[in-house]
Amino acid sequence: MTDDQTPAEDLNDVADAAADELIALRAEVAALKDQVLRVAAEAENTKRRAEREANDARAYAIQKFARDLLTVSDTLGRALAAPPQGEDPAVKNFVLGVEMTEKSLLAAFEANGLKRIEPPKGAKFDPHFHQAMMEQASDEVGAGGVIQTLQPGYELLGRLVRPAMVVVAAKGSTGEAAPAEHAAPANPYAGGDAAASGEEAGGSVDTKA
After folding, report:
1. pTM score > 0.85 for this model?
2. Please, which residues have CB within 8 angstroms of residue 126's CB and are 6 or more apart in sequence?
3. pLDDT score of 17 more than 50
């Protein structure tokens, strides 16, 4: 303050200084708030990433074990496909025991996130979950539909462990076309315009899952 300034001018200087300080404080608060939000968002992303990595680690850790158990399940299934014949009570009890063992094993699979993939007859071929082992002409199933499941597949916690091995209706099959339940890749077995549009969209699709 100089001797030439009036009290009103002094008040204006103080007000201007206070206003400048208030603007600076508001800017600092906004910057700190933005920083806090960024830190919170990064912490949330880190938490989600850690959870995802932990889930992936668990899935990978038991994936090989799950594959080994599938071999046991397949063996039990083949045994039940052609059970011993006869009226011998011991044989009947043996078959019953095998059936109960298979049911218990499948229930354990389901309880631990290992889900069976067994498309019914007429289901649409899905290269993400099915593996085409052969093609056959069919008058019951439309082109690109599943005629028969040769071996069920499995997925573990959303990850494919083994594709279902299926027989697929070949191009030109005259059966009823399978309804599309969801958007799927171009079907390599569909004939006519559908096949042409699939090729235009992205070429042929590998049937191997």
Report:
1. no
2. 119, 184
3. yes
Residue that has been written with the tokens 């040769």 in this structure: 150
The tokens of 14 are what? 């103080």
**Residue 5: C-alpha distances to residues 9, 10, 17, 70, 157 (Å):** 6, 7, 16, 93, 79
Could you tell me which residues come within 8 angstroms of residue 91 by beta carbon, excluding any fewer than 6 positions away?
Answer: 84
Joined together, the tokens standing for residue 68 give 């080994």
What is the reported pLDDT for 2?
A: 56
Per-residue pLDDT at 21 exceeds 70: yes
pLDDT digits (tens, 9 = 90+) for 123-154: 999 999 999 999 999 989 999 999 999 999 99
Cα 27 to Cα 168: distance, rounded to the nearest angstrom: 66
CA distances from 107 to 58, 113, 148, 182 (A): 20, 10, 24, 28
